[in-house]
Structure formats: structure tokens, C-alpha cells
Design brief:
- The chain is α/β, with parallel strands linked by helices.
- The protein has 13 helices and twelve strands.
- The strands form two sheets. A seven-stranded mixed sheet has the order 1-7-6-5-4-2-3, sandwiched between helices. Strands 8-9-12-11-10 form a five-stranded mixed sheet.
- The structure holds pyridoxal-5'-phosphate (PLP).
- Pyridoxal-5'-phosphate binds near residues 82, 105, 148 and 213.
């Protein structure tokens, strides 16, 4: 439709084909902040949009792109990763049982512990990296298994194909939080997952400037319809501007993630060498342990290589000798790594994770988590090397 004032397509129809968005000669998608959309004289909505909570061109375009990127049938976008996770839980009914990875993202554990028990959802935690332990935790009413791989912050790897077989045997859905893996490195639908969830706040947007989330369904059906209802009637939708920014971030996702993953491997190798040298060295803070699936001594290294063939990701963790004080001292001594929570941005971050998670955390107090950004790896390695020397004095 031509807008008489601008001569441009006023509301390109994107609900059925997000790739069709073009306005005049614009090579990027315009932003549609409008809350509401006008009706024709006969009461119809010429482009399918009536009110932005129900549907918005930028959200549609983002969902279309995310579904294609992950290889699913439909994506449902939310205002944060937490809202996306909440929506998945809300597809369940009172009395259903959810089996959750025991080293799940801390915020998800808090949601399941503090919100859903009052709604009558049964929740139990298991080590999903151990298929036998997972099988033993299944109940007659298990409807959902929630996996996160690599996990946060200890970078454990769950065998998605094995857990998917278990879920299917019990008629339960398998959800994978693919925030850390990203669709570039890991394709959960190829291993039988039913839903993939992302905090798009992290790698997908990639620039630490918004909160967002998405659930992608492998097939269209009852589950995706329920999620769509929760999105529209629950109302935790992303703004048009955030949808637009996220889609802009997605253009460079592959380049960013491959570079961050390659740097993370180099940094993990440096830390592993530091650990090996610790016994021979006198000064400086010592490293006790490195958690990175790309290192050959990681307990699930072979599985990680199969499940994430293009790289092990941009997140890693390590433990220093000592406790919280030593970990905080090392973080404080860094000059390039910024001391902040979150991950997946272009700037490298270091975080003493346990103090962020609170008193009932299972994360060791001497653990530091690194989110590798786009600075050159040698610069990041030098920063850690100098900080290790400086923190001990
Ligand atoms: C950050 C994060 C979340 C929560 O997402 P928000 O956008 O912060 O609400 C969930 N899962 C993982 C793995 C995360 O890193």
C-alpha cells in the first residue's frame, strides 16, 4: 500500500513472509513503534495488524528470522529470556512434573523454586549429563525436560540425542536453552529437541544493549499455539525497537560467534598451561581448574565435538587457588576484561559468579566466568597473565 505522504509502502505485509519487508529503496527494515493500526471502513485490518501486543511488523520480522536461523517452524519472541522461559513453564498444567538440569542458569532455578511450586507444578533437578540419573528421575507425570548445554557457569555438556530419546519414551517435551551454544555452533532440533529457547539478550543481539528472549518450536502445533497465546495474552512482548535492534545484531551473529569461540579456545589453552605450570611457579595467583568443553581433558569433550562441531563457544570458567577473595582480586586486577555479569556481547567480561547468584548458589566461590568478546585473543591473554601476577602481590 502506498502511503500518500511518503510514497513508500506504509505497512508491508510481513505476517506470512517476514523477508518481504521493503519500504521503497530502504535496504533495512523500518521501525514500527505504533501501538495501534487503522481499520478499513468495513472494519477489516488491511495488513493484518491491529494492536502491537497482538502483532507488530518488527516482531514478526524478528520471529521469521529466528525461526529460519534455528531451523524451526515458528518462533515466539518475548521481552527477556526469563519471560520466554516462563512462557514454556506456563504451557504446563497443575500436577505436571518438570525435570530440570541441576546446573541450570541460576535465574531459571529461582523461578522454579519460588514461583511455580505455588501453582502446583512438580519440579525436580537431575544431572542430565548422566543419562542414567535422568532416566531414574522420570515420573509418570513428567511432561517437560529442560536442558541447558553448555551449562552455565560450569560448561557441562548434555547429550541431547540421549535425553531426547528418554523424553520421547515418556511422552515428554524436551526444551534446550541454546543461549550459550547459539544456532551457529549447536542445532538442538537435529538432536530431537521440541523447543529451543534463547536469551536473545546474549549472543543473538550481541551488543549488551537490550533484553530479549525467544522460544522456537520445531513444528507448528498445539505447543506452538499455546506459546503464542501466552505471548499475546500474557503480554511480555519485545518492543518494536528491541525487535529491530535484535535483528540488526543477527546479521553479524555467525562472524561474532566463530571469532569469540576461537578466542575462547586460545584463552582456555592459556589457562590450562598456567594451571600446569602452577606447581613449578613461586609468585602469582595459581589456577586450579579450567572449565571449557573445547579442552581435551573436559569430561564430555568428545560429545562436545560431536554436538558443537564448529566450536565450543565463547564462554568459559576457571577456578583460582583460594576462595572468593582471590577470585575478586583477580577480577579487580584485569584491565581489558570488564567486571560485569551477562555474556555474549562484543566486550569481554569477567565475573566472580557465586556472589552474583546469591547465598544458595552451587557455584564454587573461587570460580571466575569469562565471556569472550571481540578484542584480539593475545590482548585478552596478556590481560589475564598480568592480572594473575598483579593479584597475588
Ligand atoms: C541470561 C540467560 C537467561 C535469562 O535471560 P534474560 O534475558 O536475562 O532474562 C537464560 N538462560 C541463559 C543460559 C542465560 O545466559
Amino acid at each position: 500500500m502506498q502511503d500518500p505522504k511518503t510514497g513508500l509502502d506504509a505497512f508491508p505485509a510481513v505476517s506470512s513472509a517476514g523477508s518481504n519487508i521493503t519500504v521503497g529503496t530502504s535496504v533495512t527494515i523500518p521501525i514500527f513503534p505504533s501501538t495501534t493500526f487503522t481499520r478499513e471502513a468495513d472494519g477489516s485490518y488491511p495488513h493484518g495488524y491491529s494492536y502491537s501486543r497482538t502483532g507488530n511488523p518488527n516482531r514478526d520480522a524478528l520471529e521469521y528470522a529466528l525461526a529460519r536461523l534455528e531451523g524451526g517452524a515458528e518462533a515466539i519472541a518475548f521481552a527477556s529470556g526469563t519471560a520466554a522461559m516462563m512462557a514454556v513453564m506456563q504451557t504446563l498444567s497443575t500436577g505436571d512434573h518438570v525435570l530440570i538440569a541441576n546446573d541450570l542458569y541460576y535465574g531459571a532455578r529461582m523461578m522454579l523454586k519460588h514461583i511455580f511450586p505455588r501453582w502446583g507444578l512438580e519440579v525436580s533437578f537431575a544431572d542430565l549429563t548422566d543419562a542414567g540419573a535422568a532416566a531414574a528421575s522420570m515420573r509418570a507425570n513428567t511432561k517437560l525436560i529442560w536442558a541447558e548445554t553448555p551449562s552455565n557457569p560450569c560448561l557441562k555438556i548434555t547429550d541431547l540425542a540421549a535425553i531426547s530419546t528418554l523424553a520421547k519414551r515418556h511422552g515428554a517435551y524436551l526444551v534446550c536453552d541454546n543461549t550459550i551454544g547459539t544456532p551457529i555452533l549447536q542445532r538442538p532440533f537435529d538432536f530431537g529437541c521440541d523447543l529451543v529457547m534463547h536469551s536473545t539478550t546474549k549472543y543473538i543481539n550481541g551488543h549488551s544493549d537490550l533484553l530479549g528472549g525467544v522460544v522456537i518450536a520445531r513444528v507448528n502445533g498445539e505447543l506452538s499455539e499455546r506459546l503464542r497465546q501466552i505471548q499475546i495474552h500474557g503480554g511480555a512482548v519485545p518492543s518494536a525497537f528491541d525487535a529491530w535492534l535484535t535483528q540488526r545484531g543477527m546479521h553479524t551473529l555467525e562472524l561474532r560467534v566463530l571469532a569469540q569461540s576461537a578466542s575462547a579456545l586460545q584463552i582456555a589453552q592459556f589457562l590450562a598451561e598456567e594451571k600446569a605450570a602452577a606447581s613449578r611457579r613461586t609468585g602469582g595467583l595459581k589456577i586450579n581448574r579450567v572449565h571449557y568443553p573445547g579442552l581435551p581433558d573436559h569430561p564430555q569433550h568428545a560429545l562436545a565435538q560431536r554436538q558443537m562441531p564448529r566450536g565450543s563457544g565463547g564462554l568459559l570458567a576457571f577456578e583460582v587457588e583460594g576462595s572468593q577473595a582471590q577470585a575478586l582480586a583477580l577480577a579487580a586486577a584485569c584491565r581489558v576484561f570488564r567486571r560485569a555479569t551477562s555474556l555474549g556481547g562484543v566486550e569481554s567480561l569477567i565475573e566472580q559468579r557465586a556472589s552474583m547468584e546469591g547465598p544458595d548458589t552451587a557455584t564454587p566461590p573461587n570460580l571466575l566466568r569469562l565471556s569472550i568478546g571481540l578484542e584480539p585473543a593475545p590482548q585478552l591473554i596478556a590481560d589475564l597473565q598480568e592480572a594473575l601476577a598483579r593479584a597475588a602481590t
